[in-house]
Amino acid sequence: MKQGRRAMAAAALVPLAVAVLFSLSSAASPVQWGKLDPHFYDHSCPQAQQIVASIVGKAHYQDPRMAASLLRLHFHDCFVKGCDASLLLDSSGSIVSEKRSNPNKDSARGFEVIDEIKAALEAACPGTVSCADILALAARDSTVMSGGPGWIVPLGRRDARGASVQGSNNDIPAPNNTLPTIITKFKLQGLDIVDLVALLGSHTIGDSRCTSFRQRLYNQTGNGLPDFTLDASAAAALRPRCPRSGGDQNLFFLDPVTPFKFDNQYYKNILAYRGLLSSDEVLLTGSPDTAGLVKLYAANQDIFFQHFAQSMIKMGNISPLTGANGEIRKNCRRVNHN
């Protein structure tokens, strides 16, 4: 009973935050929603956002890691062919699932939560709410429930009828990419340096596997030496559970200070040379422009929250399928068969 009450309390945060955002939106600077519309389901499925928030709230209470996992699904979906729920498709027929790609294999999770949301929405409003919009809403709700900012989610995306495992392998920034490569991958999506540094702030929650940062502990540049931009005491604390070989799937907090709280501690860690991934720490060491933003966000959480919300809206608007394009899947794991 307590569990149910807490889940409902967590879910109640989201509609409240969204109501405040809607009340302020007329006074705020205009947002570029493109073809999408935050009121898209107001008449066809008015309870859609509450249904999503309720199930995300329950999942968040049962597993505090789930917030970061759902946020990551939206990111990994949008960076491949746009925000079209291609990531959610299982392999079948001619479709090779993006779940098999290097960025997603053994790490992407939360698909069962999306399934539960979709089933509830199909019961309430059959054939109406897309899987792509579910991902966008679940990402926002997960952020709010972890203590982060809320934002109005533009809606009306439709679902892809195919996937691209090659795009997933090539287009999603990797933990060991250089900063110029990461900047290029964001630029290809229409995202700038502010978006890059703000969106990587999602690493304030969640985990990473040993295999994603092992080279920093032992052999960063091929000379047999650890990464000198990783604090020596932090590296020493990581090595027992991330040895030279073995333990690939061992999990480590991306932000060990406040691992389940969406805040600006991530940037403070980077300033202390305690960013876990190489792609985290290069924000400080790789460019004066990104370093300036790291320092700004570390000093001012309100500005970080504002930029993060704006960048999430911008990312959620990458090449959506609208109008007659795509479809509204009945099951997020497979395309419809007419």
From TrEMBL:
GO CC terms, sorted: extracellular region
Protein name: Peroxidase
Binding site for Ca(2+) 2: 204, 255, 258, 263
S-S bridge residues: 45-125, 78-83, 131-332, 210-242
Keyword Oxidoreductase recorded: yes
Residues that coordinate or bind substrate: 173
Entry similarity comment: Belongs to the peroxidase family. Classical plant (class III) peroxidase subfamily.
